[in-house]
Design goal:
Blueprint (H helix, E strand, L loop, with lengths): L9 H10 L7 H12 L4 H10 L5 H10 L11 E6 L2 H5 L2 H12 L13 E6 L11 E3 L2 E3 L4 H16 L1
Parallel strand pairs: 1-2
Antiparallel strand pairs: 1-3, 3-4
The structure holds FE2/S2 (inorganic) cluster.
């Protein structure tokens, strides 16, 4: 797991835990709320939740957080790239687009955020833009009919923008 570099406000996590009465059955909802705060689940937050909730342990909470695809244990990048691999996009070549993005970002196996924190990658099952397949979304903007070359150009453009 990547170590977080942000300050965790544990009182906010306490407020969330209290609002769910520390109910074990609300663990998913609690993790969702904490993820809304930080855009991912920092390791310290997972440990804290596991220690504060009766009958749970940090390892159990970590297990739940890693089981569900909706939770991210890595910080998001400045540019969040969502790649759709749903049916419509898949049959139109999303695998090649995804492979091109991973290669371009030089992401190690199992990692979804670049070491410089500039990009993060998320694979989703539909972006609601099936007519534009294969589609990706970068920070909320839909890019239709992607190809490996097209995504490469988008990433190059963002990198040059960062370099000024
Ligand atoms: S399947 Fe890709 S946008 Fe719907």
């Amino acid at each position: 797991m990547i170590k977080s570099t942000i300050d965790i406000d544990f009182s906010k996590i306490d407020d969330i835990l209290k609002s769910y009465n520390y109910e074990k059955s609300s663990l998913i909802a609690i993790l969702q709320k904490v993820q809304e705060l930080y855009k991912y689940l920092p390791e310290e937050a997972i440990t804290y939740i596991g220690e504060r909730m009766e009958g749970l342990s940090p390892a159990t909470v970590y297990g739940v957080a890693t089981f569900y695809a909706q939770f991210s244990l890595e910080p998001k990048g400045k540019y969040e790239i969502k790649v759709c691999d749903g049916t419509a996009c898949h049959v139109r070549g999303s695998s090649g687009v995804l492979a091109a993005i991973k290669e371009k970002l030089n992401l190690e196996k199992g990692k979804f955020t670049t070491a410089d924190g500039l990009f993060s990658l998320e694979i989703v099952s539909c972006l609601g833009a099936c007519g534009l397949a294969p589609a990706i979304v970068v920070n909320g903007t839909v890019h239709p009919q992607m190809t490996p070359d097209a995504v490469s150009t988008i990433i190059d453009t963002l990198v040059s923008k960062e370099r000024g």
